[in-house]
Known about the structure:
Blueprint (H helix, E strand, L loop, with lengths): L1 E4 L22 H5 L22 E4 H7 L1 E2 L1 E4 L7 H11 L5 E7 L2 H14 L5 E4 L18 H7 L2 H17 L4 E2 L24 H16 L6 E5 L20 H6 L2 H9 L4 E4 L5 H4 L10 H11 L5 E3 L6 H7 L1 H11 L4 E2 L4 H13 L5 H17 L20 H14 L1 E5 L14 E6 L9 H8 L5 E6 L5 H12 L3 E6 L15 H10 L5 E5 L14 E4 L5 H11 L43
Parallel strand pairs: 3-11, 4-5, 5-6, 6-7, 8-9, 9-10, 13-14, 13-15, 15-16, 16-17
Antiparallel strand pairs: 1-2, 12-17
Helix pairs in contact: 2-14, 2-15, 3-4, 5-16, 6-7, 6-16, 7-9, 12-13, 13-14, 16-20, 17-20
Amino acid sequence: MAVLLLAGACSRATSTAxxxxxxxxxxxxxxxxxxxxxxxxxxxxxxxxxxxxxxxLTVREKAAQLVMxxxxxxxxxxDAAALxxxxxxxxxxxxxxxxxxxxxxxxxxxxxxxxxxxxxxxPLLVAADLEAGLAxxxxxxxxxxxxxxxxxxxxxxxxxxxGRVTAVEGRAIGIHLNFAPDVDVNxxxxxxxxxxxxxxxxxxxVAELGSAFIRGLREHGMLSTAKHFPGHGDxxxxxxxxxxxxxASRARMDSVELVPFRAAVRAGTDVxxxxxLSVPGLAGADAPPATLSPFVLDTLLRGQLGFRxxxxxxxxxxxxxxxxxxxxxxxxMALEAGADILLMPxxxxxxxxxxxxxxxxxxxxxxxxxxxxxxxxxxKARLGLFHDRLVDxxxxxxxxxxxxxxxxxxDISQRSLVLVKDSSGIVPLPAARRHRVFVLTxxxxxxxxxxxxxxxxxxxxxxxxxxxxxxPASGPASFDSARTEAAxxxxxxxLAASRPTAWRPDAVDIPGPVATLVEQLSGGAPLIxxxxxxxxxxxxxxxxxxxxxxxxxxxxxxxxxxxxxxxxAPITGRLPVSLPPAFPAGSGLMRxxxxxxxxxxxxxxxxx
Length: 608
């Protein structure tokens, strides 16, 4: 059966737009705002008013509009098998959108997306996980230090600016929808998958920063996503592998997990992403996971929170869903529950067929399918895709990774550093400790270059810098070499790149033998531990005399760390999470920059 979707079928009357967060006088935003594709006025929490061209779609074609498969972001030649496969998804299967993975240059991504858009009968909605800027997925884009770093600066304007730059750069290469910000409240230090992706553990601050990020995106042409509903912060399980269970009561979730989502809805978020977890305190002991729960998606999110935008599932290839329900059936259940976009199914064609079959046998009503298709097409109209779906390759070099954007990222990174402890008063480094420095780094295969930019910056101010790299597989021989180097050093600097990584819950920790080695080295020459990722690794090296939280392991943050250690920049950040047992949220030692007077009461203290 075909349905004719008429122009303007999804318009609504009452605007929920919020006032922009104005840049401070003289700020980077005021000086360097770049033209961005405009979003048409929002007329109802994500449901727009621009006209939709009349489209006659079969049930299968409508089902395909809901499906958003993953495509790689790296370079493809025109005769590449991967490109041919993607073109079949877009042309033969007529999927409604794609999510772009980690890629190469902005030019490669833009050219690829233009090619796919030309092949699509209906414009594609293109999404990406750009939680920390375009560099999260594309080399050459601006990379920011991430949400928890924004929590450490405590400035809403910083969150807004990250949204602004991400929107401008992402739209320049053909990305319309950012699956960010993550507004989970990270109130569980053992959480293996949220961690530094969260703004922190204080619900009100997460709500404020998340809302500012959303406004920065939306006011510069990019759709925003609040995730992972109804809250993924209080779990010790990675939902890529198994089904987490949130045991909190409805009252607790109302006062913690749901606070940022209510704020995101008020801020006008266009999309909400579901969480693959069980919430018996909300939906009952026998209820399906949140992604598949009509109560969570329809009654709670749409009914009680008043959300009227798009609901997207978390990836449907994740173990929390697939192992229990199967990929195709899970997609049908998610649609029944209230989801609009079915993200990253293992087999897009199988999911399209399953949805069409469910409609044919009456398991899902065609009216339910139509409502999701109408929302998706309305968003595409609001983005202007029916008018112009291609990007101008010539605009990339004047928009992506510009000097002003990179300077903003450097400034935010610098102000995000938190000196959690410094029992020996070794930060900034005194001249007597600069003659022989041993830099010991740890990271996995995703952090091959960890420490490189920091060491390069240190060498200009040190007599001798020796380096050594540890890996997850490092063993006794490497540890013996590290002890020998440390014994001859005037200072030991330990850098740990431990961060949340899908499918690898242990990636947020330092391996036990490495932590034991650092504890042993803490009894010799002064040692500074720097976390280029999870701040919770302090719990593994509690005897480290000094600990600096630096949130991520990109070049920008490493340069910021070097400047802070050398006394070339102040240290002003505050912990947005607690590091038990001694350091509550708000803690942080202040250090003055060049020419500044020492901060009064520069010990650990809570923020006002």
